[in-house]
Amino acid sequence: MEFVFETNGLTKRFDEVTALDRVDLKIGRPSIVGLLGKNGSGKTTLINHLMGLQLPGEGSVTTLGRPSAELGHDELIHIGYVPQEIRLLDWMTVEQHLHYVSCFYPKWDREREKRLLDELELEASKPVGALSTGNLQKLAVILAVCHHPHLLVLDEPVSDLDPIVREKLLAFLLELLREDEATILVSSHVLRDVEKVVDWVVCLDEGRVVTDSALDELKERYSRWRVVSKNGDLPEIFSEPFVIGQEVSGREACLLVENGASQIDAFRSTYGAEIVERPLNLEEMFPVLVQKKSSC
Amino acid sequence: MLTLRPFFLLVGRPAVFTLGALGLLFAGFTVTGLASPDARIAGYFDAVLVAALLFPGLAGWLAGAVIQEFQHTSVAMLLPGVRSRIASGFLFTGVVVTAVVVGSIALKSTTSMNLAVLFAVGSGAFCLGGIFIDPLSTWITGANTVLALLLVGRSQDVSELVIAHPVLATALSLAVGAVSFFRLFARSTFRRKPFVPTSPLPGRYSFERSRQRERRRTIRDRPKKIAWHAGYLGSDSRRWVRAAFHEAHGAHGWKAFSKGVSRAWGVGLLVLIYAWADRGEMGLGEALARSIYDALFRSPHEPQFGEKGGPFLMVLIFIAAVGAVKALYRPIALHAGLTYPLSRSGRARVHFRGGLVDNALFLLFAAFVYVAGHLTGWLVGIEPRFDFMPYYFRALMLTLILMPLAYRGRLALLAATRRGAENTMLGVIFGVTAFVIAVIVLSVISAGLLVPPLAELTVLIAALVVSQWIYRQSLTDYYRAADLA
């Protein structure tokens, strides 16, 4: 299988700081991948490597079948990118900027451009320098998608957007996945939104990959148990290895469990308790993924 | 034509035409001046060669600046075929500009230099202009400056070499052009540019050092002790002025400031060129000292001050320009985008006092220039002359009187360009030019009035007080109503 991007032992150091530490990733298409991690965990550095904007210290990066340092015309016409820090040509109007960027692509979808301008309520005649941060983000998204990319990389694309536009944008990403069969990599801290669209999650912590898994798998793996004892107080601490977080108060407890589905019956009978199980959402899961422990 | 379009879409805008027109004027005046049959400079300059270098070089600089500005956007790096398309537009422009310049030379003047060789020289200059100010390396910028000064300063010698060795001159020019072109468009350097957010063109002109260079410098020059801490702050506005100085001149305070001043190596290089040109039988030390003195007080390359003889304009222009740049570039003031536990009237007060410190620093610098000039002359046995002093003092006072106007103009410019629609750099260029012209014109008028010195001094001091008072009032008004974020 040919992967959309692939990293092998990717390591990047800046002076004494190791931004990426032996990152091994393989992402196929089509899918929407959520790239998660704390601030400074190496997300943007990884994206820069995938886009060929930074080069590996050690290891290799391949994007669309080619080393990312050598990405050429044939690959770049299939890549869309929305960076975290958006810098555009301030002196152009929105319309001029779209026109300018379109010059570089053999296929530019004017209809998609027009539809997105309307849906995202972006004024085409406005100078780019006069756009608010949110509107600049909208423009960057439009610039990145109108050539029907096979790989779309979005680095914090929704952080400055209002909830209505965020919804529209996420719906559009799903449409893009269907129409263009694109692979979309989304790095974001707005996990509630990301969760609605991603099917794969990669989580970085201090430059290392700590999770590389399907979202559904993660939801099966991690859950929250609401435990109510029928026979007096529960123990102060549960020492079962699958319990990774707990809050106990007399007869009631809230437990975070990893791979607990197969243990639930045994646990119920051991403690004589009622258990209500609920899978964790991505926001609740995040501290577990990066720290391997969490409070309830 | 389709592949040239991306480049011309970037170039075709008013800011580029305005800068181009300014460059054309500058180059035109320079070449016309050098072509004049002045016996004193005729031996050093070849106006034809300077024209073949200067016009394409400036055009290349402008084209390179446009490209670098584009490279600093976040979209540029990943556009398919971006390097080849922009490079083809750059080359096409270089060929056309150089052809026009060489064609004009062929029509307007007589030269022994082969036109094909001149075309190669012009093409090399165009490409070199593209990386003249290299955001990735101060060394390349420095080397380019030295090369340009040498080529222009010794253009007569260079043109003789070009005539004697046309093949070598062509090969060298094309090699310089090819290396510069590669430097501008190589994949590796092209990739590195987006992380250097220095926009060299108006629109978002940043006077700040690029982030990477700043980072490297900070690591290299890490202060030995904590240069600033919150305990320094208080209600005392002197401490706030100190904070403003810290903001304007960085973590290294006075050290960085003095370093910045001492790094005026461009002026040093100019002096070196003078020294080389006028050296004759003198030793280098003596020639250098004489050149410094001459450059300051007896520049042979500048027009005389009216018909009076003696004093020359150069040092006056220099002093006025330093004052204008000091006021417009990085004055001591609190950064507008931050919030401080300081009232609006307090900020006005700090801003005003910061200006006073700036004025004092400028005065120190002017005194240093004057004393150093005389000291250098004295070292090589030139009798100190003080007949020039009134001219110098007058220009100095007028600069001080007009500096508040420049400070206030800067605030207006920042307010006008806060939304990024206008051209900050153009405003600064026009501001400095207008300031220098104003100081020189007022100096000439003032000198021509033949008022008794004491009366003139009284008027100048009164004007200085009034100008500072108006500035103080205007700052209070500004901070009462301005958007500070």
The outline of chain B comes out as: globular
In whole angstroms, the N-to-C terminal distance of chain A is 40 Å
Mean pLDDT figure of chain A: 89
**Biggest chain pair interface:** A-B, 32 and 31 residues
Number of domains of chain B: 2
Q: Cα distance, first to last residue of chain B?
A: 44 Å
Proportion in β-strands of chain A: 25-35%
Strand tally of chain A: 14
The total count of strands of chain B amounts to 0
Structural class given helices, strands, pairing of chain B?
mainly alpha
Q: SSE order of chain B in H/E notation?
A: HHHHHHHHHHHHHHHHHHHH
Gyration radius of chain A, in Å: 22 Å
Task: Count the DSSP helices of chain A.
Answer: 10
Helical fraction of chain B equals over 70%
Largest sheet of chain A: 6 strands, mixed
Structural class of chain A: alpha/beta
Radius of gyration of chain B: 24 Å
Kindly give the count of domains of chain A: 2
What is the subunit arrangement here? Answer: heterodimer
Question: How would you characterize the overall build of this protein?
Answer:
The complex is a heterodimer of chains A (296) and B (485). Helices cover 32% and strands 31% of the residues of chain A. Chain A contains ten helices and 14 strands. Chain A is elongated and about 75 Å long. Chain A starts with a strand and ends in a 5-residue tail after the last helix. The mean pLDDT of chain A is 89. Chain B starts with a helix and ends with a helix. Chain B is built from 20 helices and no strands. Chain B folds into two domains: 2-195, no CATH class; 234-481, no CATH class. Classes of the chains: A alpha/beta (296), B mainly alpha (485). Chain A binds chain B through residues 15, 51-53, 71-74, 76-77, 79, 81, 83, 85-91, 96, 99-101, 103-105, 127, 129-130, 140, 143, and chain B through 2, 5-6, 9-10, 13, 15, 69-70, 72-75, 77-82, 85, 191, 194-195, 197, 202-204, 219, 419-421.
